[in-house]
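Example for tutorial group B:
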């Protein structure tokens, strides 16, 4: 029979004698053949030492320490097991946990399971699913249950060793409350939290006297420190704000926008120039100019990148990949920025939950169309995600949020891709800021004017958004937790069915609308997809241009029938 791996359980304690006996007995009750229970006591004077002496199997010390994090680091350094567990002194395990996790950890480096929260007397109060999650799920500490319940997580020793900090310790000793949050983010950067054992792995007491009792203000402040540290790491941030500017050639509009950026009062900016030219000679001249631009615009650092496709969202994807900044601004040549734009953006995004901000100051019409006034505050109206043609001009987004989405997914069709970005940010529990001090002088800020193409495709745009979000929701375990607590977007079942039916009757690549360029392609689409109505309208318009009014009217009649 194969020898079972050694399990190290680390427990820190200070004056918790009333709970510690149950903790120790729960480890013993596992009836597991090879384990060590390491208890690091902070110099208790409540009978803890007498209790520890009564269990000869324990590996324990009792001496003053610099707090829980320091004590945990001591315990982790002493641990010699193949599997590491961390059990607070007032928590305990149910029977059979070690057998379950040792088996699972043969295949997975990290395993998680449910956690039963209790009151001070051990009476069950709340069941914590501790479901599968990603690094980005853990990052968003404002979402309920985003930070995994620590007593129900077990991991291999190599995980502990690989995520050590640069000073050699395992947990950040500058953190009093959120050392586990920071540690799980480091683990999630390298390992997946994607294997869950469907049972309670620990009991976790929550009561007023323990450290995670009623006062959450210091915990949130410390969580914000950790969030900022890791969101900047995700962004590989070298600057506070990067302006992404697609351009085809160097002209006065581009130079004017760069001058505005160079004059920003906050001097921590970069510019990513995204070349969308298809002319080889022009590409060479553009790159040469971009390399020399740093000498003229000395307050900004420059990057130059070519886009594989000249379409706007493909260019922005190239810019997102090239940028090294905490925040990015979607800019264009000719856009005018006041001198305090970068400062206001940096100040606004001190609110960690903001994923994107629309520069609606001075755009009252757009503000009215996109927002609702609730208790004196302007909030983004989620219905606008479906009804309005949104604009990216001057919008500022958090790079960590864009990295979670992997940029624009439906980049082939600007209208769909932009709406999808906002929709998926809200779905992932990133907030949209609209009531702010961001001001941009340019066309179509916040909303863009609807044209014929938008109007005839609007039903399919809406259907694709609903269908995509629903598909993502069904495949993402943590989305169910967000939905249960109001941190995501969900749609009624009948709306989902209608959306899916509409998309099923369209070509799989319907959003790549370059096909509308000629009558032959439109006719072929009508033949292959007779319930897909946009080509009927587009071909009718072409027939009108050719003077065939009868054919045009027949096509329009069919279009109206399909639209309903």
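The residue assignment follows.
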């Amino acid at each position: 029979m194969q020898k079972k791996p050694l399990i190290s359980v680390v427990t820190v304690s200070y004056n918790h004698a009333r709970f510690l006996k149950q903790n120790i007995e729960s480890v013993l009750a596992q009836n597991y053949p090879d384990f060590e229970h390491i208890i690091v006591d902070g110099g208790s004077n409540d009978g803890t030492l007498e209790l520890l002496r009564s269990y000869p199997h324990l590996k324990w010390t009792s001496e003053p320490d610099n707090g829980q994090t320091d004590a945990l680091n001591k315990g982790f350094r002493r641990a010699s097991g193949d599997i590491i567990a961390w059990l607070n002194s007032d928590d305990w395990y149910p029977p059979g946990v070690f057998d379950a996790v040792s088996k699972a950890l043969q295949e997975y480096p990290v395993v998680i399971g449910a956690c039963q929260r209790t009151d001070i007397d051990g009476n069950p109060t709340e069941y914590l699913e501790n479901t599968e999650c990603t690094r980005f799920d853990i990052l968003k500490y404002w979402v309920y249950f985003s930070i995994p319940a620590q007593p129900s997580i077990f991991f291999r020793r190599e995980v502990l060793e690989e995520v050590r900090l640069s000073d050699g310790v395992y947990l950040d000793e500058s953190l009093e409350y959120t050392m586990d949050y920071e540690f799980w983010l480091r683990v999630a950067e390298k390992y997946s939290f994607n294997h869950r054992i469907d049972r309670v792995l620990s009991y976790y007491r929550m009561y007023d006297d323990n450290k995670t009792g009623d006062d959450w203000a210091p915990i949130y402040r410390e969580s914000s420190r950790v969030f900022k540290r890791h969101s900047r790491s995700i962004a590989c941030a070298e600057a506070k704000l990067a302006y992404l500017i697609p351009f085809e050639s160097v002209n006065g509009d581009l130079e004017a926008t760069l001058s505005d950026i160079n004059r920003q009062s906050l001097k921590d900016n970069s510019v990513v120039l995204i070349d969308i030219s298809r002319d080889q000679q022009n590409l060479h001249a553009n790159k040469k100019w971009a390399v020399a631009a740093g000498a003229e615009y000395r307050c900004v650092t420059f990057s130059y990148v070519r886009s594989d496709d000249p379409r706007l969202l493909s260019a922005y994807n190239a810019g997102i990949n090239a940028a090294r900044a905490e925040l990015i601004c979607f800019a264009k040549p000719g856009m005018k920025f006041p001198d305090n734009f970068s400062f206001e953006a940096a100040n606004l995004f001190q609110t960690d939950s903001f994923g994107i901000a629309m520069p609606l100051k001075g755009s009252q019409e757009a503000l009215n169309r996109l927002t609702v006034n609730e208790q004196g505050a302007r909030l983004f109206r989620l219905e606008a995600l479906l009804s309005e043609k949104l604009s990216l001009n001057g919008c500022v987004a958090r790079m960590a949020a864009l990295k979670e989405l992997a940029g624009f997914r439906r980049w082939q069709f600007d209208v769909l891709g932009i709406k999808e970005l906002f929709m998926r940010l809200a779905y992932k529990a990133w907030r949209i800021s609209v009531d702010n001090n961001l001001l941009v002088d340019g066309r179509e800020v916040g909303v863009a004017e609807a044209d014929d193409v938008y109007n005839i495709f609007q039903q399919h745009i809406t259907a694709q958004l609903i269908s995509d979000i629903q598909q993502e929701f069904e495949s993402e375990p943590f989305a169910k937790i967000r939905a249960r607590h109001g941190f995501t977007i969900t749609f009624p079942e009948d709306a989902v069915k209608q959306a899916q039916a509409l998309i099923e009757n369209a070509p799989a690549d319907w959003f790549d609308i370059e096909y509308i360029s000629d009558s032959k392609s439109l006719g072929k689409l009508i033949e292959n997809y007779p319930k897909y109505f946009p080509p009927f309208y587009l071909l009718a318009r072409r027939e009108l241009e050719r003077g065939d009014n009868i054919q045009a009217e027949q096509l329009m009649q069919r279009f109206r029938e399909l639209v309903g």
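The mean pLDDT is 92. Compare this with the pattern of hydrophobic and polar residues in the output above.
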